Amino acid sequence: MIAEKTYLLPTSINEAIAFAKKHKGNFKYLAGGTDVMVNKFQGNNTSGCLIDITQISELKGISKQGNFLRIGALEILEELKLNSNIKTEFPMLIEAALAVGSPLIRKTATIGGNVLCENRCLFYNQSEWWREAIGYCLKCDGDICIATGGKNACFSELVSDTAPALIAMDAEIEIVDVDRIKRIKLEEIYTGDGVYPRNLSETAILAAIFLPLNRGFKTVFHKLRERESLEFTSLTTAVALDATGKLKVALAGVDPKAVVVEGTFNDNKADLIKKAVKGSRAVDNDMYSRKYRREMISVYLNKSFEILCKK
Known about the structure:
21% strand, Uridine Diphospho-n-acetylenolpyruvylglucosamine Reductase, domain 3, five-stranded antiparallel beta sheet, 10 helices, alpha+beta, Uridine Diphospho-n-acetylenolpyruvylglucosamine Reductase, domain 2
């Protein structure tokens, strides 16, 4: 592990972005550190500067703002279950947050960090000597995807558990950058490119997540993993039905971006499932096979629709 050369501790978003501009191309923002520091240890992140954003009060707090619940990006995953508004209107977010990693990780990891966690692949998330032995892939300056043998696309997987839950409930996010503040749908930040999985500039900061209030969501969440605790997802499915009958499905773990399917509760469920499976570009870069994970999409979504019918 390469020792850090620079550690910076800004107290405002503007100061953090100013630091980022100064160290552009050689820094990482640091919050809970459960993703950034592991990637640094593995040699997947070699930046010489860490900008610790944990002292920025603008990125903290949970409050109602108009018709939305604002959740600061630095809110700790384990503590989301303590908020009465989340418990009442968005219990699936708590379920998703508690599915992340182990209890120790959840006491450190932030919701913003989980939404932005780096895509993973069985052939990439290894030690430097292991990657050197097997050969470098597209995601680490190689010229081939080891999982597929192709040279044009990387299929490292989006493994956030909170992202599909938030997307299914129509979450929006606030992004602060050098020259602007913008608010967009969460799913819009994912590119589908495993090498560059998010269309955010290097200096951009995710400030907050906004969930729409008074939608009367009924939700179902499932996660496929080898061990109940600690394991990254091999498939996460989140389904949300609001009081108007709008249905939204979001998947993670089976594509470089979130797979999203929208419809209504009266739509043919088999057609919705077919769209979800077709949208998944899972490859054999996981402990579970591509075939099995795609089959489990149908299993989880059928089960989710059955549960929603009873709610």
